[in-house]
Amino acid sequence: MGKAIIIAGVPGTGKSSLARELARVLGTEAIDLSRFAIDNGLILEYDASRKTYVIDEEAVASRIKRIVENRDGYVIIDTHYPEIIDPGIVDKVVVLRLNPLELEKRLLDRGWGREKVNENVMAEILGTVSVNALEAFGENKIYELDVSGKSIDVVLGEALAVVRGEAGFEPGLRINWLEQIPVEALERFEKYGGDSDGF
Ligand SMILES: Nc1ncnc2c1ncn2[C@@H]1O[C@H](COP(=O)(O)OP(=O)(O)OP(=O)(O)O)[C@@H](O)[C@H]1O
Ligand SMILES: [Mg+2]
């Protein structure tokens, strides 16, 4: 029976880029969970206001479980909702953390609107993906990589260290963006972000 290594993080943190590289180096496959859901028709509806597909989480989870169980070794999965995956098949969850200012730039460069950018930047500031993953998988399976200012090669090297079980990537208070971003930036993110009916 195989095991999943999940690459998690808010949109734009570099999950798919890392998952592809990690799978290549480990000689295994990478599954982009959103792509997988769309390609396999595991969609409940299209949310026009948010311009996103609502995926059928149960169907995706059971398909992924079957795939992982039928493999030997690791399967790399990237998603911003790791908590939908059955903890029984998960070896490690690696949460990518990116400085909010760098994340803001990447999401604006994608052409995303202010509201959507701020929603995701605020999720990064609050560590929402890590908090949800900790709740779902427990602290022994969760690792955090600060990818700010690092090339994909450097990030890949650190991810391989996590896979080998090296210390230094435990979640916790190591990453605290509130200490690192100017108060004006925080005001900018709060102004149009958070609750989506405020825009
Ligand atoms: N380490 C890095 N340094 C600089 N740019 C990067 C790095 N990793 C990824 N990128 C770039 O950032 C953008 C987002 O990367 P990617 O698509 O891998 O993120 P993602 O987390 O999978 O996003 P989504 O959740 O929307 O699928 C891409 O343009 C990618 O080329
Ligand atoms: Mg992606």
From TrEMBL:
Pfam families with a match to the protein in the record: AAA_18 (PF13238)
Q: What is catalyzed by this enzyme?
A: ATP + H2O = ADP + phosphate + H(+); AMP + ATP = 2 ADP
Q: Which residues form a coiled coil?
A: none
User: Which is a GO BP term held by this UniProt record?
Assistant: ribosomal small subunit biogenesis
State its Enzyme Commission number(s).
Answer: 2.7.4.3
Q: Where is this region: LID?
A: 109-119
Q: Which GO terms describe its molecular function?
A: AMP kinase activity; ATP binding; ATP hydrolysis activity
Has UniProt tagged this entry with the keyword Transferase? yes
Question: What Gene3D superfamilies has UniProt attached to this entry?
Answer: P-loop containing nucleotide triphosphate hydrolases
Q: Which domain of life is it from?
A: Archaea
Indicate which residues the UniProt annotation says bind ATP: G12, G14, K15, S16, S17, R110, K150
Where in this chain does the record put each AAA+ ATPase domain? 1-101
Keyword set for this entry?
ATP-binding, Kinase, Nucleotide-binding, Ribosome biogenesis, rRNA processing, Transferase
According to its UniProt entry, the function of this protein is described as: Broad-specificity nucleoside monophosphate (NMP) kinase that catalyzes the reversible transfer of the terminal phosphate group between nucleoside triphosphates and monophosphates. Has also ATPase activity. Involved in the late maturation steps of the 30S ribosomal particles, specifically 16S rRNA maturation. While NMP activity is not required for ribosome maturation, ATPase activity is. Associates transiently with small ribosomal subunit protein uS11. ATP hydrolysis breaks the interaction with uS11.
The record's comment on protein family reads:
Belongs to the adenylate kinase family. AK6 subfamily.
**Subunit architecture:** Interacts with uS11. Not a structural component of 40S pre-ribosomes, but transiently interacts with them by binding to uS11.
Instruction: State the protein's name.
Output: Putative adenylate kinase
